[in-house]
Amino acid sequence: MTSIATQIKINEVLEQLGIQEINPGTSTGSQHFSTGDILESYSPVDGQLIAKVTTTTASEYEKVILTATAAFQTFRQIPAPKRGEIVRQFGDKLRQNKEALGKLVSYEMGKSLQEGYGEVQEMIDICDFAVGLSRQLHGLTMHSERPGHRMYEQYHSLGIVGIISAFNFPVAVWAWNTALAWVCGDVCVWKPSEKTPLCGIACQNIIAEVLKENNLPEGISCLINGDYTVGERMTQDSRIPLISATGSTRMGKIVAQTVAARLGKSLLELGGNNAIIVTPDADIKMTIIGAVFGAVGTAGQRCTSTRRLIIHESIYNKVKQALTDAYKQLRIGNPLDENNHIGPIIDQNAVKQYQQALDKIIKEGGKLIVPGGVLSGEGYESGCYVQPVIAEVENHFEIVQCETFAPILYLMKYSGSVESAIALQNGVAQGLSSAIMTNNLREAELFLSVAGSDCGIANVNIGTSGAEIGGAFGGEKETGGGRESGSDAWKVYMRRQTNTINYTTSLPLAQGIKFDLD
Ligand code: NAD
Q1: Residues 120 and 211 in one domain
Q2: What global pTM score does this model have?
Q3: Average pLDDT in the chain
Q4: At 86, which CATH number?
Q5: Of 105, 456, 454, 101, the residue nearest 301 (C-alpha)
Q6: Structural domain count, the chain
Q7: Are residues 287 and 378 in the same domain?
Q8: In a domain, 517, yes or no
Q9: Atom of ligand 1 nearest to the CA of 252
Q10: 506: in domain
């Protein structure tokens, strides 16, 4: 069998993206330096070592923060539309590198090549969005209660935005943050996941070129590498006013407390436990496509992956049968081969968690109707390929209440009206994405009403995964409450200032308070 690395000519990909055998994982634009421990990046696709990265030491971290702080002084003075022009050029560079970067995402993280390209496309889309936004960073004007006074609000750049990201969207999450932060006049320091460091280096190399071509300070985009200890340095650092952290709820709870202890701001994008409600009025064919893609896409490793299907008892057996038939068609294997639907999960530890979850389902009284298993043999040498699972469970099972980052889909029944399905859907600690499949207007509107889904994302006749960049993205409850990407998510990257100007010769006080001096 031809090695996968040869199939995608990984050396050519790495060369195009400026990645060497050993890479300095600390960089401020064109300056690459780091002397910390070595981080090895293995591909879950074929188990091969792709390259090594040196991590950021404490003193190197200091240097990065000083460089970023200095860059901010310059960058914030550049008019926002001119900063938008830099983001436009960055979007163009991403277009030129889409194929190489998409392949690296697929090979280092394990998602399908189509999804790897999709992730880069999402970066390009957010750049386009941010360019327009750079001319729309507006506040309101208000009428003052005092004569001869003018009142308005404006948004100013915040400073350094610290970005901590997860392995499953190794490039897009960074761009969601940076494209907006840069037009807002902020500078960024990024710590990518220790599981996908090469994607971080590739992105940094692309933006470094843009900054160099425009004679801009390299500290506008900084990269630091390492495990959670490097992330901790950022969360404790009061020179970073905003920490945008994407990852598990476990991580988010620690980050939230650390940042709050210094009264910093945090933007948290954490775990999900997303459900689709299937009502008697659902279009079954659409439901099956939405549910299967939602459950097995990215091998169940999206924060928005469909974890639970809440099906009305009257159609339960029909949906269950259609799903098990659909699962028989799924092809698992090399994600760079477009014939396959499902690639590997990220590493051996994730495989262990998948196996433990299956044991727990049975222990708690659940039933595996598509039983799953770990694949071995030719093409599966990395040991990271698992079969997708369908299990019948109760919503209150401890395992169902947790997010297992693997392709495991839980089926559960509801009876009576859609209110009871909504109660099940909301009956978990997480609140990211949700969906209802129905052609009944009353059910759909109820689901979207204040008495409906309690999630940050609620869809009708669409699955739970696959958000567009135009909307604000994020979730409630243990998903962390943050919003990124579209709509007015940009406001978190700026500080708001309210201004009142008196253009009279007297000094009337607000609320009519009298304070006279002779
Ligand atoms: P993870 O929590 O293990 O790690 C995420 C990042 O946090 C890594 O860079 C890690 O080094 C860092 N980190 C961990 N502990 C830290 C600490 N105490 N202080 C500072 N940094 C710390 O998550 P993962 O396994 O990489 O990603 C999967 C998780 O991410 C899932 O729960 C998934 O739902 C979630 N996720 C959420 C979104 C969203 O937008 N809501 C998007 C992608 C992934």
Answers
A1: yes
A2: 0.97
A3: 96
A4: 3.40.605.10
A5: 105
A6: 2
A7: yes
A8: no
A9: 2
A10: no
Radius of gyration (C-alpha) of the chain in whole angstroms: 25
Q: What is the mean pLDDT of residues 295-299?
A: 97
Query: Ligand 1 center to residue 506 CA distance, Å?
Result: 56
Q: Does residue 325 share a domain with residue 258? A: no
Domain that holds residue 39: 4-270+480-496
- Whole-angstrom distance, CA of residue 85 vs CA of residue 93: 13
Nearest CA to ligand 1 atom 22: 228
Residue 488, class by beta-carbon neighbours within 10 Å (0-12 exposed, 13-18 middle, 19+ buried)?
exposed
Q: Is 481 in the pocket of ligand 1 (CB under 6 A)?
A: no
Residue 127 falls inside a structural domain: yes
CA dist., res. 510 & res. 88, Å (int): 45
Q: How far is the CA of 301 from the centre of ligand 1 (A)?
A: 12
For residue 300 and ligand 1, the question of a CB distance below 6 A is answered with no
CATH of the domain at 326: 3.40.309.10
The reply to whether 152 and 205 lie within a common domain is yes
Residue 269: CB within 6 Å of ligand 1? yes
Query: Which pLDDT score is estimated for 31?
Result: 86
- Asked if residue 507 belongs to a domain, the reply is no
**What integer pLDDT is reported at residue 1 of this predicted model?**
42
| Ligand 1 pocket mutation pick from 177, 243, 246 by most atoms within 8 angstroms of CB | 246
Q: Same structural domain for residues 18 and 84? A: yes
Pair (289, 351) in one structural domain: yes
pLDDT, one tens digit per residue, over 121-156 is: 999 999 999 999 999 999 999 999 999 999 999 999
**3 state DSSP class of 166:** coil
Nearest CA residue ID for atom 26, ligand 1: 166
The CB of 403 under 6 Å from ligand 1? The reply is yes
Q: Which residues are marked as active site?
A: 269, 303
Residue 273, ligand 1, Cβ within 6 A: no
Percentage of the residues of the chain whose pLDDT score is greater than 70: 99
Residue 235 Cβ contacting ligand 1 at under 6 Å:
yes
Asked if 330 and 187 sit in the same domain, the reply is no
Name the residue with tokens 């259609």: 322
Atom of ligand 1 nearest to the CA of 405: 31
93-128 pLDDT per residue, tens: 999 999 999 999 999 999 999 999 999 999 999 999
Assess whether pLDDT exceeds 80 at residue 2: no
Does one domain contain both 278 and 244? Answer: no
Q: For position 400, what pLDDT does the model report?
A: 98
